[in-house]
Design brief:
This protein has seven helices and ten strands. It is of the alpha+beta class. A five-stranded antiparallel sheet has the order 1-10-9-6-7. The longest helix is centred in the N-terminal third of the chain and has 19 residues.
């Protein structure tokens, strides 16, 4: 059962530098990663706070900290989501050394399907985390408001795991998908658009050959439809493909 689930739960994503950073000659300060292991299948996105001197490294280390935390967490029977979040904070703090945590502040949003099939989605800071159920219903994690205004919390700023928004589900049903994205995308989506956007991403990109898909996604993000968009843009999708459809690795 676990092995079958690993092949059915798939991931993809992309990240591009925004026009502002291109103009200023600065690097992309977003990061993302997908990962598989004994802990299951996961995706993570992070946005380094642009006002911080170590923002790019902070975002990259957030992705690595989530992966390492999942590896430790999966080995502890009955470990709670709070333990996982504490591990992320500790490991990220170690990875950004010798630079201070405050100067490396970065948001962190991740989703994991563990071998039992359970889904966990966690969000710290701005951006978006959303689940589109197989029936089209959309659940937003940590956004009890209209629109997607900036939040100030992040790794390097948060003082407690209580600042995270977390949701768990017994499973991610076939045909369902999770979207994670930084605020360069989230700020241009209204709530009513989220479900359609996730559906578009899965239908348009999910079953492409990986290298072709990455190029197509980057092209889509660089040619973002919102006028005068400026921010770096990063998204990652985790979805449970239906048994009657083929899928990309």
């Amino acid at each position: 059962m676990a092995q079958k689930l690993l092949t059915q739960v798939q991931c993809f994503g992309a990240s591009v530098k925004g026009p502002l950073h291109k103009r200023e000659g600065r690097p992309n300060e977003d990061a993302w990663e997908f990962m598989r292991g004994s802990f299951g299948t996961a995706i993570v996105v992070s946005d380094g706070m642009g006002s911080k001197p170590n923002a790019r490294t902070g975002a990259r280390m957030a992705c690595r900290a989530v992966k390492e935390a999942l590896q430790y967490w999966a080995k502890i029977e009955g470990a709670s989501p709070v333990m996982l979040l504490r591990l992320v904070h500790i490991l990220w703090g170690m990875r950004v050394l010798p630079i201070s945590e405050e100067d490396s502040a970065a948001t962190c949003v991740f989703a994991v399907v563990v071998p039992s099939g359970e889904l966990l989605v966690a969000k710290l800071g701005d951006g978006i985390a959303a689940i589109r159920e197989s029936d089209g219903k959309v659940v937003l994690i940590g956004d009890e408001r209209t629109g997607f205004c900036n939040q100030t919390t992040a790794l390097g700023i948060a003082k407690s795991t209580k600042e995270w928004s977390v949701i768990t589900r017994p499973s991610l049903a076939p045909g369902a998908a999770v979207l994670l994205a930084t605020d360069g995308i989230a700020d241009d989506l209204i709530e009513e658009q989220v479900g359609g956007f996730i559906k578009f991403l899965v239908e348009e990109f999910a079953y492409m050959e990986p290298a072709t898909r990455w190029r197509a996604l980057c092209h889509e993000l660089r040619n973002w439809s919102t006028p005068k968009h400026m921010d770096d843009k990063t998204l990652a999708v985790l979805w449970h493909q239906k048994d009657d459809l083929g899928g990309a690795a």
